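thread: overnight batch results

M.L. [08:02]
morning all. the overnight job finished for the chain we discussed friday. pasting input first so we're all looking at the same thing
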Amino acid sequence: MQVMTRSTKTKRLRGFTLIELIVATAIMMILVGAAFPLAVNAVKRERERELRYDLWMIRDAVDRYKAAADMNAFVTKLGSEGYPPDLDTLVNGVDVSGKKLKFLRRIPLDPMTKQEWGMRSMQDDKDSTSWGGQGVFDVYTKSDQTALDGTKYKDW
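M.L. [08:03]
and the structure it wrote out:
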């Protein structure tokens, strides 16, 4: 028969104390709290990158439409200054000698608002939030949020 001594008794009762568990939990909470803002900024940075790309893509299509109109490749509406009447025209294309000339595959949704883009015509003010309808000169996001660099998205 084996006699149980105090040293063999404590060896069997190994585990974490309540204080050790509280300290470990506190350390985990601090680490998670530090990582959360980084994850939020990474998501926001990705949406900003997508916004910049989409704005560039649409504005490039508008410029290509304007260049083709200036070369008299097709007839444009009087007063439009050679700019497309709407964004759908960039996707649907225009008829040039029996062929469709398209400038965009699709119109992307605004990544900030998940809605349609704001548009300005050549006759509208730079800060105008309503489109005059004369032709799409520029596009912008309708978001009032501030970017990571401190600028407003609608000013991009």
